[in-house]
Write a structure and sequence with these properties.
By secondary structure, the protein is mainly alpha-helical. It is about 55% helix and about 0% strand.
């Protein structure tokens, strides 16, 4: 996920990143492929729960 500058409260990617970080708080991957699999799985779960995405601010302009 590309992180951009500017105000985090106006960037919906920041909201998704925050959700992902909460899911991974106590996670200790065994290696990079393990971390990649878990991140992809968590992002898919977030994607399929629109109410979570709705809590992230929409893009402006």
């Amino acid at each position: 996920m590309k992180r951009t500058g500017g105000a985090p409260e106006l960037n919906p990617a920041e909201g998704v990143w925050s959700l992902l970080k909460r899911h991974l708080a106590d996670f200790a991957p065994t290696d990079l492929p393990h971390l990649t699999r878990v991140i992809k799985r968590k992002l898919k779960k977030i994607q399929h729960r629109p109410h979570l995405i709705d809590g992230c601010p929409p893009p402006t302009g």
